[in-house]
């Protein structure tokens, strides 16, 4: 599933180098955890919003745009998380994930399909050993409010059914109430239950109130063993925003500089157009550098984004827009 990183050509490139040895500090007590999180600098909210807005105005060179669109396609977690999901819908989703445009084999496959745990086995039967990963939301998604035993059972069943990745959601009530040790312990336990599967920790940033909380939650998740930190479930009114993504990208950059451990970022909720996707790619490049411009370190959680990317891709080739109904609605 690895893809060579693409270097976006923008006004400047803030690529950074990181230590080769990964040393994540062991957290042995809640007191130590609180001390680590308290040592983080506060977020300049006005500065973060201004920088995100400025980066959103930048554009990539025309010669790079097609490569950026293909990269964005390869970073999509094609998602269906509805109560009415059926094996048939998931099967169609998997087919589209493998061949986003059945008429054009040069279009890359997406990174993953993301489904509820009870549909993982069906997705595995369709995808087999294909490069497209199967991600399952777990741990009482989207609320995160269940006993730890229930959450861990949810994870183990999804992994046993064939999930390659687990998207867990933190208990925001516990975090906002100051029970940081409880949130940390749950992440550690879920990571252990994931076994071979990668862990994406959903912060649900729209409910964390402040950028400082987003930064602290990002570090807490990474200290607990997250392979990715993710903005949102897509089930609350405020999902991914560029200022929040900036704060999370700065957190993974600082974490990498401190520990040598590279953690990915996934943005989800409300990202629907190619223009949105490219803005996020520029934000990634300018904040953490081209090392993160790969599906192994950056993802889009989306259901409708893929079609717009395909439309823009054809426009680059044909010089004119195509009809939206040229692509399936799955």
Describe it.
This protein is α/β, with parallel strands linked by helices and 330 residues long. The protein has one domain (30-318): TIM Barrel. It contains twelve helices and eight strands. Strand 7 (264-268), helix 11 (274-287) and strand 8 form a beta-alpha-beta unit. Helix 3 runs antiparallel to helix 12 (305-318), helix 6 (148-161) packs parallel to helix 8 and helix 9 (211-223) runs parallel beside helix 10 (242-259). Mean pLDDT is 90; it is low at 1-5 and 9-22.
Low-confidence stretches: 1-5, 9-22
CATH class category name: Alpha Beta
**What is the string of SSEs from the N terminus onward?**
HHHEHEHEHEHHEHEHEHEH
Mean pLDDT: 90
Q: Specify the biggest β-sheet.
A: 8 strands, parallel, barrel
Task: Specify the CATH architecture.
Answer: Alpha-Beta Barrel
Specify the CATH homologous superfamily.
Aldolase class I
Give the C-alpha Rg.
Answer: 19 Å
- How far is the first residue's CA from the last residue's CA? 22 Å
Break the fold down into its secondary structure elements and pairings.
Blueprint: H1 30-38, H2 45-56, H3 62-74, E1 76-79, H4 87-98, E2 112-115, H5 120-127, E3 133-138, H6 148-161, E4 165-169, H7 172-176, H8 180-194, E5 198-202, H9 211-223, E6 228-230, H10 242-259, E7 264-268, H11 274-287, E8 298-302, H12 305-318
